[in-house]
């Protein structure tokens, strides 16, 4: 059987140039730049010609979308590396934990990247389907979901989880959720979404998790020495 053809040199060079630009954009954001950094500064940081970011992405908006896609790809890669145990419900909650921990590694970068997605561009992004694919990966074969609800879950749940995660992250970006509360906020939201379609034997676990998250949040909200 013939081996698949390797990517040509031109395609490799193209991908290398794109990675140089995206790596440079992350460094600028890490140093405190906003999404308004200049394309000239970006090209200088990447060590490429001034036209290179335009040639490969077309606009700054497209660069920010590519950075968001890169974040989602990292989340998926970490999920595959970890291979969380359990059924679909366990895997969804594990994906939420993995995704939040990744965001918290570079909050100054990822807040700008995700926040920039609210800016309209000349073309629609592919971030939403990529985000939905992340939850399709977590759901797997839908084990743990009630048989009569699996068709609904397959068709609707990935999109709903994508909305839930994006909503929690938006509140985090706005400062209404602190770093410590982000994970619990999504975990609770996901448990509530899963509660109505899970197998009956899993519902007590989900309810207990919701209660534990609520108790942990209440404890964090108490002032020192409060009761």
From TrEMBL:
The keyword RNA-binding does not apply. It comes from the Bacteria. The keyword DNA-binding applies. Residues 15-75 form the HTH tetR-type domain. InterPro entries: Homeodomain-like_sf, HTH-type_TetR-like_transc_reg, HTH_TetR. Residues 38-57 bind DNA. Pfam families: TetR_N. This is TetR family transcriptional regulator. It comes from Teichococcus wenyumeiae.
């Amino acid at each position: 059987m013939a081996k698949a053809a390797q990517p040509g040199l031109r395609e490799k060079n193209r991908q290398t140039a794109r990675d140089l630009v995206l790596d440079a954009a992350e460094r600028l954001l890490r140093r405190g730049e906003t999404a308004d950094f200049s394309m000239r500064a970006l090209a200088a940081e990447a060590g490429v010609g001034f036209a290179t970011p335009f040639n490969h992405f077309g606009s700054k908006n497209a660069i920010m979308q590519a950075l968001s896609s890169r974040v989602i790809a990292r989340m998926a890669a970490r999920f595959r590396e970890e291979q969380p145990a359990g059924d679909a419900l366990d895997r969804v909650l594990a994906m939420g934990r993995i995704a939040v921990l990744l965001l918290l590694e570079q909050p100054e970068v990822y807040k700008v990247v995700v926040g920039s997605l609210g800016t309209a561009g000349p073309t629609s992004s592919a971030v939403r389907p990529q985000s939905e694919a992340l939850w399709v990966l977590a759901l797997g074969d839908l084990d743990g979901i009630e048989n009569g609800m699996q068709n609904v879950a397959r068709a609707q749940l990935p999109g709903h989880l994508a909305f839930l995660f994006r909503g929690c992250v938006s509140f985090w970006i706005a400062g209404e959720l602190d770093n410590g509360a982000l994970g619990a906020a999504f975990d609770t939201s996901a448990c509530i979404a899963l509660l109505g379609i899970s197998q009956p034997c899993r519902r007590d676990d989900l309810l207990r998790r919701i209660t534990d998250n609520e108790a942990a949040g209440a404890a964090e909200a108490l002032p020192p020495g409060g009761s």
